[in-house]
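Exam review. A common question shows you a sequence with its structure tokens and asks you to describe the fold in words. Practice with the pair below. Do the first one on your own.
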Amino acid sequence: MMKISLPYGQEKQSVDLDESILNGILVSQIEAYDPGKSQTELVKEALINPIDSQRLKDLAQGKNKVVIIASDHTRPVPSKIIMPLMLKEIREGNPDADITILIATGFHRLTTRAEMVSKFGEAIVDQEKIVVHDSGAEESLVKIGTLPSGGDLIINRLAQEADLLVSEGFIEPHFFAGFSGGRKSVLPGIASRVTVLANHCGEFIAHPKARTGSIAGNPLHIDMLYAAKAGKLAFVVNVVINSEKEVIHAVAGDCANAHAKGCEFLKSLCRVKAQPSDIVITSNGGYPLDQNIYQAVKGMTAAEAAVKPGGVIIMVAKSNDGHGGESFFNTFKEEKNLKNMSKRFEKTPKNETIPDQWEAQILARILLKARVIYISEAPDAMIREFQMTPAENLTDAVSLAREYLNNDQARITAIPDGVAVIVE
């Protein structure tokens, strides 16, 4: 027997499986990678050697209003390491800089003070100016152009009025933008809900290039990169992290080219070959990425790439915050026919995209391929509204999957962290 453990919140869910029915365990090589340097050293080196850019301290010279875009509470960015180094570098170049940290909530709920303290530490929260972006607060937004796709490009006014706009972030595989990080700080990070909806339209989500690890020809990425450049995002600090949320690689510099270098590094470690199976077990990488069902759809896409049609996906995601999106939940509550749901979304014009449509569209696509058993702390009734089956633990879920398939010897693939791999 082999014990398979998956992250669940800040704990683990485990199951013992007979090795004879285990097709494979798909993990990235990130865990085996040893950078040979501390996390702080890696970020410092990136700042000292920016890609296709001046150093941040040089860019800051003569710039009075400086805005640093920071990821929100749903992203495990090691800001306690990155942010102090960025602040120090900016103030070396301009001791009098008026710095604002702008929390990029995108379409998520607003970040709480407690979450900011957890992210940055008490000192930064108490001493720095921090503003939480609200994508629906029209008075704090300004239109700066039109996206290649035709949607209005509207971003946070603080960013638009900044003399220098920079960002921190991390790079991971992303289920429709290809990779997180870089340009995503602006769109969706600090964009208006109108802009996010246009970018996340049904046509783009259905595009064959809008997949994990895919940037070239990806229409969402094209819009996002345009938004970052139009918003004058001058400098990024992006890191790659392991399962312990520790920095193993860092890049800094030009928002497009530094990010591309980071993506290349990550892709070299996290590509895995699918081992098609009747049952695929996966997670969303634990806290903070598995706080709700909405976010957990990301990890499910890794299982989608590995499960056989008609098979079963077992998803482990604590989801202590519930569904994560009212519109996302209501879509499934009101429409029970998944094919009709998918067709409607694909035909919906860009300017009529509804909130969370993209997440519902992708979950419907997954459910049309395989049944999903969902292990979480969310109410069972809520799980069932999403046409998934609730389970208390992995052992029960595996037994239930075998019952559904009527096969005690069903082959199993495990993907311990579904958001950490690109399944090809």
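Now try the second one, then compare your answer with the model answer below.
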Amino acid sequence: MEGEIRRPDVSEIVGQIRRKERPRDSFVRQSLSSIDALDSQIRAWVCVAPRPNIIEAASAVDTTAPLAGVPIGVKDVLHVAGMPTAFGARLSARRAEEFDAACVGMLRGAGAVPIGKTVTAEFAYKHPGPTRNPHDLRRTPGGSSSGSAAAVAAGMVPVAIGTQTGGSIIRPAAFCGVTGFKPSFGAVPRDGMKVSCESLDVIGWYGTSVTDIGAIADVLLSDERVLQAPTRRPRVAVICGTSLHALDADAREVLVVAERALTDHGATCTQTAFPREFTMLAEAHRTIMEYEFARSLAPVVSVAHSGLSEELLTCVRRGLAISRSQYRGMKDLQSSLRDAWNMHFGDADLILTPSVPGEAPLGLATTGSAAFNVAWSVLGWPCLHIPFGRSSHGLPLGIQLVGKWNGDAELLGWGGWIESLGPDQGAAINSESRIAPA
């Protein structure tokens, strides 16, 4: 969208409602107005709940709740009471769900107001939905959590829930220029989610800043405040490349700028090559993902074959051809490399690495490469994308911070500090103006 997008953050919303400076339904109404104005172009939403129902729910929130009056979007693989779940697929009409997914219920209990379901790639795999990148409508927003990232990027909601199997949270965050967080595997309950890959699927979320991410983490990850300022400067392992995909010049420059900023502010940065097992992790991801995805989707394929994409059907066929012994071998590798990689990175507090190979690609037929994400998804380690500069075309770029398994709070603490070191997000790295969509 042309010009800078106004994005009220979570603390602003909660503070104004708590102080009674704005009505409890004020920001929900603002979100609905933004959706009305923008979504015909961006197409981030599958459905939005009836306006009277949402406003009534917002008007009833407890003003002392930690997320009082915060409107949220929910990826359409998670149940929201009163809304259907279609999984991004062309299926027959589905009834509204009776219950929330566990994470949605936790957020609702904290005062947040789910206002609708956001677009997902078909069953959170590769076949993209209709969503477009708010920074350039000709470009992919990434996937599979495309609608959630685009809705936050366009200012329609301050927070939206997504999921990741390979790179489905971090990649859209990078392409759309928002903050995205994938917690440690198993950190957020998945009840009420269509789990397609039991060993990989993780629920995460998008926000306008690390502070927003922390506000949601306070509800979904802990009974205490998660986001704490670090008491020392971090030790950072810097990984620039991977054999799976080249890193373009602008993305490489962003990583150099980030490392320099960290070093200038007292962090200890050490250049680290991807361990030789990296390609093994990528193969483990493919095998585990396809094996589990095929068996999860086989019942759907048996009754709805004609409504599914050839891309999905091909993946199911490949997965069903993988033997249980092959699958178990890769599961064993997943377990052993978790321990080995902990040793490889030694006393590093976090890893600094690219989120994606470069700016969002032109075209809407694919969702981009997950080459810089799959290793961390196999390991189950938490990942945080932070916007950090722009490409020569004026499109968002950023960095990925990776923490150790169950080190989510520490990662967010370092992330908040690193975010404060970032360049002006309104300026392109090479000073060209941002592309406005036609």
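Model answer, second protein: Residues 425-438 have pLDDT under 50 and may be disordered. Residues 1 and 135 are 5 Å apart (CA to CA). Full marks require stating both points clearly.
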